Amino acid sequence: MGVRVLVLYVIKNIYTVFLLPPGIFIVLLLLLAFYLRRKDKKSTRLVLALTFLLYIFSTPFVGDLLLFPLESRYSPPEKLQGDVLVMLGGGAIGDVPDVNGTGTMNGSSSNRLLTVARLARASQLPVIISTGQVYPDDGSEALIAKRILIELGIPGERIMLDNNSLNTMASARNMPALLAQNQFKNPVLVTSAFHMHRSVRSFAKYDVAVQPYPCDYMVNARQTLYLNKLLPSYGGLHKTGIALREYWGLIPTFF
Length: 255
Known about the structure:
5-stranded parallel β-sheet, alpha/beta, 9 helices, two-stranded antiparallel sheet
C-alpha cells in the first residue's frame, strides 16, 4: 500500500507540474526549441530564453523571493494609535449568492475585511472602506464589505464608505477630504502586506500619514527551500505576478 500511495503521489505531481499551466507551456516551448534546433538557431535561442524566463517566474521560490521584501517592510503594531480604521479593497464578485445577500469578497479582500472586523471589535474604532466598482461584474465592493461587517457585529453607523475610488492612488487622493469631514486625524491603514508599501507611499503623496497594519500574508517570514519550490506552478506564477504588479505600481509614487 505504501508503494502504491507513493506511485500515485508521484504521478499526481507529474501531472500537476507538466500537464497543467504553466508547466504544459514550458514543455511545449521546449518541444518547439527541439524542433527548431537545426532549422533556425537564432529562433531556438530565443525560444529557450523565453522558456527559461517562464520557468523562473513560475517557481514558488522566485515568487516568494520577490514578495518577501514587500511583505517584510512593515509589521502589525502591538498597539493601535489611531482614531479610524481604513481598509483598502482588493476585488469582489458581484452576483454570486452569499449567506445573507448577494456578492462576496475575493481572497485578499476577505482577509483584509476579517482583519478590520477583528480590530474594530477589539478597539471600537470606526471604519472607512475605500474601494469602488472597477468593472461592471465586480459588484459594489464597499457595499458588500459593509453588509458583511454588520453581520459580523460591527454597527452600521460606525462604517463609512468611499465607493468612488477605483485604485490605490484614488483612495489616497480621496482620503484627506473624507478624514477632514469626519474629523479623523490618525488613520490606521489595513491592507495586504504585499500592498502596504505602495499604499503608504500613495497616501504620503497626499499628506496622509497612516499607521500601517498589514495582513493577508503570502510568504513565510522564515524561508525554506525544497524541491516543490523549484517546480513551475500556477501558485508560483501568481505570486510573481502580484509582486511585479506591486513593483510597477510603486513607480508613480516616486513622482
